[in-house]
Amino acid sequence: MNLASFPMPEQYCSSAEETLLGLVREASPIDSQADARVSFAGDVISGLSARHKQLPPKYFYDATGSHLFEAICRTDDYYVTRSEIALLRNVVAELAASIPDGAVLVEFGSGESAKTCLLLDAAPQLSAYVPIDISADALDEASARLAGDYPQLNIAPVVADFTGQLRLPAAADGRPRVGFFPGSTIGNFDKEGAVRFLRSARQVLGDQAALLVGVDLVKDEATLSAAYDDSHGVTARFNKNLLIRINRELSGDFDPEAFDHLALWNVAESRMEMHLVSCKDQIVNAAGHTFAFRSGERLHTENSYKFTADSFAQLAAEAGWSVSNIWISDEPRVAMVRLEPHP
Ligand code: TRP
Question: What is the pTM for the complete model shown?
């Protein structure tokens, strides 16, 4: 992996004076740790009991998973981050020009907020930034860093699963809202989930809104497959970390070495799929239950849907949005789409 050539997030941004005064914390409804554990156990039990075993991808992102994901984004094989950042750099002035004075930037699944500073630098008219993420650690780190770099900006982080019911903090009251959803995360929903998310974003952002969505485009299979099975094995470790998390948090006894990482292109569904494939017949215990895996049996852990400009516009339309603009990167191609509420 060529980490050296890939800038760390702070290098994307211009750095302002160091201060922590800009950091404002809003109270937000947070599942208690115990509740989170119970939902995790429930999802593991039902997912591993299903005929086609599967787990929801949101559980990838514990502290190790979040760091491995950042490492994936810096591999040479994973083009999505690189192409999207290059594209954002090229079009950010145009994006920023359509952001109203005093608007609030709301980012869904902000993680380390690596791309956000491109927008924050180009749109000083923003009054507040609301990063929403399921990982409190990632949010803390990112908020502290941004508070130092943008002392005039009200930073109001929300620890939440952005697929659930969302309430914005007071900083967003009465202001126009611009949603930011980069990284092709929209591709990690199934069709119904994507429409549901886009509808709920439409509702949370209100009538004055715009939504900027990073969308990965259909391309040749070799490029796609390499992106989800990088030559340094970082994606494989990321995938298997899910088993390690189950072991730690749900008293599991998975042997991660007894599973292989598999990435495959499902052309009929227009999606990349990630699986963990059992290397042998084996019995695994987790969350107080026992699960049998046959040799070669797959545990489906992630989908990443790839779109065309038309297929994405259609999806957005079903959720009450129309495409007002679409920008496409150099190869390997990804798109940045600006959505407006349907008239
Ligand atoms: N949303 C991105 C994508 O689908 C990131 C992602 C999610 C990802 N899960 C992944 C990238 C697993 C690599 C491997 O491309």
Answer: 0.90
